[in-house]
Amino acid sequence: MQGLIGPLKELAEFEELCKNKKKDVGMIRVCGCVNSQKSHMMYAIGDGCKYKVIACSSETKAKQIYEEYRFLDNNTYLYPAKDFLFYKADIRSKELVKQRMEGIQAVLSGTPVTIVTSLDGFMDHLAPKESIEEKVLKIQNDSVLKLDEMAERLSDVGYDREVQVEGPGQFAVRGGILDIYPLTEEFPVRIEFWGDEVDSIRTFDVESQRSIENMTEITIYPAVEFPQGKEKGVSFLDYFSKEDTILFLDEPVRLVERGQNIEEEFMEAQKKRLENGYELEEEEAKIFPVADILKKINTYSSIGFFALEMKCRGLEVRESYEIQAKSVNPYNNSFEMLTQDLKRLKRNGYRVVLLSGSRTRAKRLAEDLRDYNLSSYYGEELEREVKPGEIMTAYGYIAEGYEYPMLKFTVIA
């Protein structure tokens, strides 16, 4: 990704940011940022950190940053928040739990990972990390297991017993065969027993029931992530060790406002339920107050990205930097407008990266631009640094183009 990151190293502010990002806890404030340029800065600054956690002010913004960031880092996961007002319906949505558990699995694996979420993703109560790990089931060929006990264990960790497996979070027992659709796997798994011994493990297709691939073992993550019994709930933020983690906060003022609004709505809804004689059950939502989440955030090293310099109550600022960046208007498929602007940028010695959602289109674009006497080439992995006056086309995605005027470097969507 040298083609994207290289120019930033010419900025003294960027070099200082990278040097100081993990020096202490508290937030470094970076002002002058614009839409998709924030994802670019996050990726560049996060280099060398094991866990990068991006907190956004809304689910929509989290999805946008996730789509942009996963082109830069394959090991990126979107961790959606629960709907606190319709929590009982939400906890039965296996699709939502699947997405959340995929993020949890990535964190528990111990490999470097980027998690994108919204502030309310930190507010609900989760089972402690150790509890999730204890509930993970591992089955190997030749394992000795009692089928009825395994069925009971699957029910205990949130799987639904069905006549036939149709979706994630379900299992079925037929004779000496156990079908499981692990929450974090692409395909369901069929385990055949010979007595109490596992005889074979293989994935299969839900529609045709045909086998796909033989396996030697399968790891099954629980299908429930909230605390059970007398477990004390923790925040998702508690899953990340402070030493190995950097937090990126997108527009912290909006972030805090969003959390406060959710907390107020939740408290009001709970109050109305009690007034209407509704008994709150154990599996009802419990949330951490925003003030508590901000206190937790202040114990991590974090970087807040602001469009304008603003104070953010509740977050401790340790340093401030100003970055000059501006948005680039979309060309709306106008090739003529694009070539005119590219010629102007070439005359001014700009370095340009032009991203396309298709590799084939990016390659063709590089060829077409050369017909207009523009120095363009296709960069497979964005590895080569762009020279002044050059245009690199590449496969990638950003919601909106951006420019660093001081660096004469621009990225166009």
Class derived from helix and strand content = alpha/beta
Poorly predicted spans: none
Mean pLDDT over the full residue set: 92
Cα Rg = 25 Å
Q: State the share of residues found in helices, binned by percent.
A: 25-40%
Strand order of the largest sheet: 3-4-2-13-14-1-15
Instruction: Tell me the total number of β-strands.
Output: 21
Shape: globular
Tally the helices: what do you get?
A: 12
Q: Largest sheet, if any?
A: 7 strands, parallel
* N-to-C CA distance: 17 Å
Approximately what portion of the residues adopt beta-strand conformation?
A: 15-25%
Describe the structure.
By secondary structure, the chain is of the alpha/beta class. The protein has twelve helices and 21 strands. The protein has a seven-stranded parallel sheet with strand order 3-4-2-13-14-1-15. A six-stranded mixed sheet has the order 6-7-8-9-10-11, with helices on one face. It has a six-stranded mixed sheet with strand order 16-20-21-17-19-18. It starts with a helix and ends with a strand. The mean pLDDT is 92.
Short account of what is shown:
With 413 residues, the chain is an alpha/beta fold. It has twelve helices and 21 strands.
Please outline the helices and strands.
Layout: H1 2-5, H2 12-20, E1 26-31, H3 37-45, E2 51-56, H4 59-69, E3 76-78, H5 87-90, H6 94-108, E4 113-118, H7 129-135, E5 137-140, H8 147-156, E6 160-161, E7 170-174, E8 177-180, E9 189-194, E10 197-204, E11 211-215, E12 217-220, E13 245-250, H9 252-275, H10 290-297, E14 301-305, E15 317-322, E16 326-328, H11 335-347, E17 351-356, H12 359-370, E18 376-378, E19 391-395, E20 401-404, E21 409-412
Parallel strand pairs: 1-14, 1-15, 2-4, 2-13, 3-4, 6-7, 13-14, 17-19, 17-21, 18-19
Antiparallel strand pairs: 5-12, 7-8, 8-9, 9-10, 10-11, 16-20, 20-21
